[in-house]
Amino acid sequence: xxxxxxxxxxxxxxxxxxxxxxxxxxxxxxxxxxxxxxxxxxxxxxxxxxxxxxxxxxxxxxxxxxxxxxxxxxxxxxxxxxxxxxxxxxxxxxxxxxxxxxxxxxxxxxxxx
Amino acid sequence: xxxxxxxxxxxxxxxxxxxxxxxxxxxxxxxxxxxxxxxxxxxxxxxxxxxxxxxxxxxxxxxxxxxxxxxxxxxxxxxxxxxxxxxxxxxxxxxxxxxxxxxxxxxxxx
Lengths: 113, 110
Fold this sequence. Notes:
Chain A is mainly beta. Chain A is about 0% helix and about 50% strand.
């Protein structure tokens, strides 16, 4: 079974630039998550989708971050404009439902200079 | 106070040693508990769920103490391949989101 796919794997940008990340969840998984993992910390949930609806975006910095999951499958996470403190690994995960095990993608490592 | 607290380590142990990690959580209404493993520059993967009665999976034993809001992971007969960061994870809240600790780094030495 194919896992969660993410692209790009690495991205280097300068502050104030924009960047977008893409995630393709495991086929049939209704719930999709975006996490931010800063070096030395555990992943922090940014946003959770159930199909194409947002369930929890309480920790998403909405002044600069946005995410969508059109058609309830793929998702994109955008940062505009980026700040130095956005340097992190952005992990996408999916699960069958809220209670099922979450499977993580390989992540996108973002460096903001 | 952090919602999930762990000793970041590192724990440097020889092969064959027994090592224990501890974790505390602040929300008494938390519903489910897990240990995830994260290898260097890789994604987290579920190691095991943690139940009040305690559970074992081979060399790994997890325990939960709800009264003390405390979770533990015991690794017996450590292998070089056990070297990784072990993340304590708690599920709770209205949206059942996972809350991760900062992780404990384990380095098993030959």
